[in-house]
Amino acid sequence: MKKIGNQTFQIKDDVFVRDTFTIAGKKEGEGPIGNCFDIIVDDDLWGEDSWEKCELKFQKEAAKSLMQKNNLMEKDIDLLIAGDLLNQITSSSFAARDLQLPYIGVYGACSTMALSMGLGALMIDGGFASNVICVTSSHFCSAERQYRLPLEMGGQRHMSAQWTVTGSSAVWLSNGGFGPKIKNVTFGKITDLGVKDANNMGAAMAPAAYDSLSQHIADTKIKYDLIVTGDLGTVGKSIVNKMFNEENNSIEDIYDDCGTIIFDLEKQDVHAGGSGCGCSATVFGGFLYKKLLNKEINKLLFTSTGALHSPTATLQGESIPGIAHCVGIEM
Amino acid sequence: MKYDKNSYKQVVNEYTPKNKMLRNCVYAFIFGGAICLLGEVIKNIFMNNFGTPEQDASTISSVVLIAITALLTGLGWFDKLSKIAGAGTAVPITGFANAVVSPALEFKREGFILGTASNIFKLAGPVLLFGYFASFIVGILSLMFK
């Protein structure tokens, strides 16, 4: 049995995070970690004629460039695990149409990066695959139009609202080579404490993040150098800190959130921080992975958080189900 | 977890930043007032310079404001203005014009009929519906008390 504690899968064989390739939009490129991205795209259409087509190009180019950079052929890749925010995860499936790799599309809203990395690690540890590529994306414009209002519609955003990250990152997992290894994976439970406000995703997802994080820590008993959540923003991050503090198990010194890392919250006018499938993906692929390689951090708990709601469910008065998946990575 | 839905609600309220109500009201007053002033100026220009009767000049003034809003929306400037002005641009006729033009632009990519035409009143639809309904009620009342 490779399961430890209540909810955590222990990866016994080597699963290396061999390389990443990250593409980000203009605003993300101007942010504090802008110099970590492989490509920064200044145009929100990237030469395509719709935002949706642009987003799938982000995914396709991220995966292709990752393969080219590492001289990987199609036959070398056993599995592509991808997801995004759009209805029917079209960005992923349409990008996979051109990539011609065996494909599993997953939906975990903004938690998709950790979800696909976790699944990829299990596939490799189970001996079903040697090389897996995980890729996710989000695009500010395509997400706004699906979840909120037309882009040119004037109005004021809530102070607790977050800014969907335009970007994509592809991660290559392999059973051979070198680099940081995935050691433990905890898939979260849906946690919903009744938040209905779609402008306050951080608060909706924070209980799920707390639940998965505390479960993972209890199951593995590992002392991490850094714990990051996906896109809780300032609101969710402070609630997670409060919850851990109340248990006398403060993580404040080693805890950060990708949504607050990717943007300069004051100067870039993003209110509570970044969000979207691309948020934890680009921060991991661009920023955290390099920190692992440079041994600035040795033990990273990467936890993507997702709000599994839809505009229809919100209009029908449903509250927002949150989820968080943890991937423990060690150099 | 020690929280239930009720106790968590208090935590959320405590940690959620409040919108800047006073600042928003002041800006809404200034920008909304400025737009109405502009409307009056346009109306007076038509009345004084072209001899347009007052009622027609009012209509023309609205049309000009709608045209300006449509242009600014198309250029991508209106949402930037609205971010500061808030209700100041949303309440006057400019808000309605923006609510029609922005989906029209956005759904262009799904085609002229099933995209733009189907979605153009997506945001303004409720205003139209209740506008028609109110005029229907007022019509009945005016018939009854004539």
From TrEMBL, chain A:
Coiled coil: none
MF-aspect GO terms: acyltransferase activity
InterPro entries (UniProt xref): SpoVAD, SpoVAD_sf, Thiolase-like
Name of the protein in question: Stage V sporulation protein AD
Organism, as annotated: Sedimentibacter hydroxybenzoicus DSM 7310
Name of the gene this protein is made from: spoVAD
UniProtKB/TrEMBL annotation, chain B:
Species this protein is from: Sedimentibacter hydroxybenzoicus DSM 7310
Gene, per the UniProt record: spoVAC
Protein name (database record): Stage V sporulation protein AC
Transmembrane segments: 25-46, 58-78, 85-105, 125-145
Top-rank taxon: Bacteria
Keywords from the UniProt entry: Membrane, Transmembrane, Transmembrane helix
